[in-house]
Design a protein that fits this description.
The complex is a heterodimer of chains A (about 200) and B (about 180). Chain A has about 200 residues and is mainly α. Chain A has helices spanning about 25-35, 45-55, 60-70, 75-120, 125-155, 155-170, 175-200. Chain B has about 180 residues and is mostly helical. Classes of the chains: A mainly alpha (about 200), B mainly alpha (about 180). Chain A: Pfam families: Chromate_transp. Chain A: This is Chromate transporter. Chain A: InterPro entries: CHR_Transporter, Chromate_transpt.
């Protein structure tokens, strides 16, 4: 299999022009590679590979595709692989990217699961994992803060109340996700619609 | 529910959950915890926290914590079934919606809906952090470690892997 990534340097005058749609094997390999590089999240590596390295999409095309995947349910980056692959090579391309993204890490994860089931009781491994969990929660908190910053800066009371409401319902009261979202999503869409109309008027 | 085929239980549980997982994998963690630990007792609180740590530490999308939950409940077939059930239905949905929207004339509704979902998904992620912190940070040292990592990761661009490794070393040394 020849690599499709080489010709990117040939036509520097055409900004981000694509070098023809990549083959299915190239799609599979590219997504497998970005997935295996993505410790603690794949998005950064996906954007780098798709926009900078292979030039399969412009930065704007990538943003639009990701935005779409962000407001659909499910794991964003998994959705992105399917949507991206299918835009280049139809449904077969979508499946190739999807499989490339998921198959190698799933195999690794299964092996880790087996190791954990065998040795999970070993005290040293338990202690190390406990330390890693504490750090992992810290990373999650940092991401939440980064995402929250623009909302706090705008001091949009309604938005902050919605956010706090979901946090309390799920995190403190432990209500089922479906029930909370069935109420919160229509409510939030309605409120956003009304606020935008008020701003426009 | 418990008398059913375990594979089918995993598929129906995660397939349904994924359709409501707005805001990505991190936002779905509280629901995974509720289902896997509190409702079905597929794993203990401790096992769940460990699974989250393993999923964070290893490469690939963090949603693959479902692979570990599936394995804990039903072995290798369970691992594969849970992974596919969590990932495939929404990927197909995304495929169809993207084809539907792939026209030049777009209304402002996609943008509006996305803006409306932002506070909800942040609230969900914050809830994940709280629930996980309650099951991991059982000591003062653990709490301090979490707070330190949160601060360092908020203000700097350190590779997250180093922070996870540091946590592992502190745990290994018996400090946390």
């Amino acid at each position: 299999m020849s690599t499709d990534s080489a010709p990117a340097a040939q036509e520097p005058d055409v900004p981000a022009s694509r070098t023809g749609p990549p083959g299915l094997a190239a799609l599979f390999l590219a997504f497998a590679r970005m997935s295996l590089a993505g410790f603690g999240g794949v998005l950064v590596f996906a954007r780098h590979a798709i926009v900078d390295q292979h030039r399969w999409m412009t930065a704007d095309e990538f943003n639009e595709t990701f935005a779409l995947c962000h407001f659909l349910p499910g794991p964003n980056i998994v959705n992105l692989s399917m949507v991206f692959g299918s835009r280049l090579r139809g449904i077969a391309g979508g499946v190739a990217a999807f499989t490339g993204l998921l198959l190698p890490p799933t195999l690794i994860m299964t092996v880790l699961a087996i190791i954990y089931a065998r040795f999970g009781d070993v005290e040293v491994l338990r202690r190390s994992l406990a330390g890693i969990s504490c750090a992992a929660v810290g990373l999650l908190i940092a991401v939440v803060f980064r995402m929250m910053t623009p909302l706090l800066k705008r001091m949009d009371v309604v938005v902050l109340v919605l956010m706090l409401g979901v946090f309390t319902a799920i995190g403190v009261l432990r209500l089922p996700l479906q029930a909370v979202l069935l109420v919160a999503i229509p409510l939030s869409i309605g409120v956003t619609y009304l606020m935008r109309r008020k701003v426009a008027a | 529910m418990s008398s059913e085929n375990p594979i089918w239980a995993l598929i129906s549980t995660f397939g349904l959950m994924s359709l409501f997982a707005v805001g990505g994998a991190a936002a779905a963690v509280p629901e995974m915890h509720r289902i896997a630990v509190e409702v079905h007792h597929w794993m203990t609180d401790k096992q769940f926290a460990d699974a989250y740590a393993i999923a964070q530490l290893s490469p690939g999308p963090n949603v693959l914590i479902v692979t570990l939950i599936g394995y804990a409940f039903a072995g290798i077939p369970g691992a594969l079934a849970a992974t596919l059930a969590m990932c495939l239905p929404t990927a197909l949905l995304a495929y169809y919606v993207s084809r539907l929207l792939n026209r030049p004339s777009q209304s402002r509704w996609p943008g509006l809906i996305q803006a409306a979902l932002v506070p909800l998904s942040i609230g969900l992620m914050a809830a994940s952090a709280l629930i996980l912190a309650q099951s991991t940070d059982r000591t003062i040292a653990g709490l301090l470690l979490t707070a330190t990592v949160a601060m360092v990761a908020s203000v700097s661009r350190v590779n997250p892997l180093w922070l996870l490794l540091a946590g592992g070393l502190l745990g290994f040394a018996g400090i946390v």
